[in-house]
Amino acid sequence: MPRARRISSPPDVSSRVEGKIVRASEMPQNRRFLVYGKAKAGKTRLSSSAPEVLLVDVNEKGTESVRRNLNPYVYPVETWTEVNDLYWFLQEGQHEFKSVAIDGVTALQTLCMNFVLGEATALDASRDPDMPTRQVWGKVTQLMKTQITNYRNLPMNVIFTALTRRVVIGEDEDMGESMTGPACSPSVSAHLEAAVDVIGYIYKREVMVKVKGSDTKKPRTKTRLIVEGTERFLVGDRTHTLGNFIDAPDLMDILNTMDGKEAA
Question: Which of 61, 84, 97, 190 is the most buried (most CB within 10 A)?
Fold first, then answer.
């Protein structure tokens, strides 16, 4: 029986592959974040603290909290097509943005659902537009995963924000343990969680602060971002540089910490 002859790869293939092999320390240090919390918890404000950020307002209309001081550039999204247009604009690189914040993913999934339902109704006029089928959910999931991956792969810092929902651990919805996680479908949420470096839960808490020059204290609201060390919330820090939580979080400071630099 004749011996199988080994087929050698073309020289250009070897050079292309070798040209892409680098040390991990030489990889670009753009970071990806998922920040979720209740409405008015500070997600938009935290996103707007990223360097040279473009804030993508996905039908949230939540820029009031940042217009006076941080005042980021805002791209309002009202249709699914605009999400794709913006991706290609950012991918081409003819801009000065260093970060992009998708604010937020919960509304983005609704936008995607409306887009798919519109297509389905156009193909079948008898279909109830308010009752998504399994096929519709499948297409929504695939479109959402594609865009999450697209934005994750942009050569810039990427921040995704979302509202909260109760996540059941285990198959029994009534008896299983639960935690708080981002509000999107389970398959989309799993893809989003795997796409980022840091998952954080943001919330406001009331603390008693001593009044300057007095012995009295007064209540003050402060923002905290939890990134590790809890079973109540779905969180995680792939870099293990941020500790369990950050008070008064600022993305510029967070990025400096992750890169081993002193906060400004």
Answer: 97
